Amino acid sequence: MTTVRALIATAAKKQWDIYQLDVNNAFLHGDLHEEVYMDVPPGLVTPHTDVVCRLNKSLYGLKQASRQWYEKLTAALHTRGYVHSLHDYSLFYRKRGTSTVFLGVYVDDILLTSTDIAKINELKRFLDNQFKIKDLGRLHYFLGLEILYKDDGILISQRKFVLDLLKEFKCDHMTPLSSPLDPNVKLKSHEGKAITDPTYYRKLVGKLNFLTNTRLDLAYGVQLLSQYMQDPREPHLHAAFHMLRYLKKDPTLGVFMSSSANFRVQAYCDSDWAACPDSRRSVSGYIVLLGDSPVSWKSKKQETISLSSAEAEYRSLRKVVGELTWLQRLFEELNVPQTGPFSVYCDSQAAIHIARNPVFHERTKHIEVDCHFVRTKLQEGLITLHHIDTHAQLADILTKALTGIKHSALLDKLVSLTSPPT
Q1: Residue 368's pLDDT is what?
Q2: Rounded distance, CA 209 to CA 220, Å?
Q3: What is the DSSP secondary structure assignment for residue 139, as one 8-state letter?
Q4: Using the 8-state DSSP alphabet, how is residue 277 labeled?
Q5: Which pLDDT score is estimated for 60?
Q6: Distance of CA 290 to the CA centre of its chain
Q7: 79 Rama class: left (phi>0) / alpha (psi -120 to 50) / beta
Q8: Which among 336, 355, 359 is positioned nearest to 346, based on CA atoms?
Q9: Are the CB atoms for 18 and 139 separated by under 8 Å?
């Protein structure tokens, strides 16, 4: 989804039209390169009762179906001069002179954008001859994402999915809340009564997880609730319904891809030290913006226990630098102008000093590998590090539960962000 958001953000800034295609019966086009047999379908009369059918083409339900369809599509596109991205194999492109065509594929759904409308129509005709496609016109609805075009950019939301979710779990009549989680409630693994139907909880959290594709304000809460999937308790379910009531406040909230010609990449990273009451692991969070358009974000509990808040901040810093390393290569393929080093904003002076200090001391030995990676990218000129006040840290929304006032204030800053902080 990061690639999808990056592609839409780039198209919005460069004023490219985006189109959507749907492949009819995509999995049936794949050729099988191994022996696969199936029972005789009901209703088919055969002279013998002990025979089976050998498949020459893939069918829906086969483990090989998705792989074979991808190979078939790749081979067809290669004949037209398209190559797949080395950094995301669902992205294809062809660059010829001033003409560039990008193709984003998710199973049988295809995004198509280009600098040349004639090349788009040519590719549509080719794909229709090869696979029989359904031309859905300009992009409006893709993988549950609703696309709304405005004069100054593109709004991506999941309004219909939110309204259906509230109706399914009977929350459409409840009073809305101003924050995704109650900051005064600390959830623990084995606290509270076990719920009678764990599947109900898992289904709810799974659908909330799908919403994080456009709702970065839900990312922290969803990663927290996902930790209790194996043995959900009543407090966990209450927290999930708290999040549903928060969604009721503004179902149309999403991410806005600005059409301004600002291609400056900036990132914010933060951590909450020893946040988990069960394991004492910290939570990392980061957000990456292309100009003022959010393209990548994550909230995740760290893999190991950090011995200090500086270490927790540094692990968060390493995560966002790793993401920026990948995004730099992706942006190069998308022809995004490189406007100098990527600015990374962190509210920990200690983490910034460690990154800039070439000498390791006893206090930094345990994070030496992370130090080397971040410092190498700093010396290569990929990033520049900047200290930022805690109240201006946009990634704070990805690391902890906030009060309604502070949560709304951070969302307003994300919405109104048009220039880097001072």
Answers
A1: 63
A2: 10
A3: -
A4: T
A5: 87
A6: 14
A7: alpha
A8: 355
A9: yes
* Interatomic CA distance for residues 316 and 301, integer angstroms: 10
Which comes out higher in pLDDT, residue 218 or 363?
A: 218
> pLDDT class for 357, splitting at 50, 70, 90?
confident
Average predicted confidence (pLDDT) for the chain: 90
DSSP string covering 330-374, please? HHHHTTPPP-SSEEEEES-HHHHHHHH--S--GGGGGGHHHHHHH
- Could you give the 3-state DSSP secondary structure of residue 248? helix
For the record, the structure tokens of 408 come out as: 């709304």
Q: Which two tokens stand for residue 1?
A: 């989804």
Cβ distance 277 to 186 under 8 Å? Answer: yes
Could you tell me what percentage of the chain is helix, strand and coil, using 3-state DSSP and rounding each to the nearest 5?
40, 25, 35
- Give me 176's structure tokens: 């809305």
Looking up tokens 């209790």 gives 228
The sign one gets for the Cα dihedral 406, 410, 411, 412 is positive
Q: Which amino acid is at 286?
A: Y
What backbone phi and psi angles, to 5 degrees, belong to 279? Answer: -110, -10
| Bridge partners for 39 per DSSP | 52
418 pLDDT band (50/70/90 cuts)?
Answer: very low
DSSP code of 25?
Answer: T
Q: Is the dihedral of CA 315, 320, 325, 326 positive or negative?
A: positive
The SS3 of residue 403 is coil
**Tokens (6 digits) for 234:** 């009543």
Give dist(CA 114, CA 401) in Å, integer: 41
The HSE-up count of residue 353 (CA atoms within 13 Å, CB side) is 8
| Residue 194 exposed, middle or buried by CB count within 10 Å (0-12, 13-18, 19+) | exposed
C-alpha span between 385 and 356 (Å, rounded): 9
For each of the domains in the chain, give its residue range(s) and CATH number, in order of start. Answer: 2-143 (no CATH), 157-249 (no CATH), 260-416 (3.30.420.10)
CA–CA separation, 115 and 13 (whole Å): 12
HEC secondary structure over 98-128: CEEEEEEEECCEEEEEECCHHHHHHHHHHHH
How many separate helices (H) and strands (E) can be counted in the chain? 11, 17
Span 308-315, average pLDDT: 88
